[in-house]
Task: structure prediction
Amino acid sequence: MTMWLPLLGLVLGISLGLVSDLQIPQVYGNYLSIAVLAALDTLFGGIRAHLQQVYDDKVFVSGFFFNIALAAALAFLGVHLGVDLYLAAVFAFGVRLFQNIAVIRRILLAKWTDREKKLNTNVPERKDLS
Result:
């Protein structure tokens, strides 16, 4: 059941976002963009950990809240300093997101090719009877 936690959170979040008519003020746009990237980073990190068989619920949940808190703190500090520090968090989450997706792709491709090799080796050869 724990392996479906990231996907369940994604589906639940998208469903709530589509159903609700919540308007977010433009002032909070930077914070929202960081929160979405932190959530996606944690989601794909959880999927990667599951595929590598090192998934842990505590690491997943704590990583989610820590990432959001750190990113929000950077954005908040940047607003008060007059510097766009939220861009550092956007860059970091973006890089990690693409790295996680690349690793997930490699793992799935390796599993797929291994499965194909096993299927091809188990098929007996046909002999021509003509």
Observations:
- The longest helix spans residues 86-122.
- The chain has a mean pLDDT of 86.
- The CA atoms of residues 38 and 67 lie 6 Å apart.
- The two ends are 54 Å apart (CA to CA).
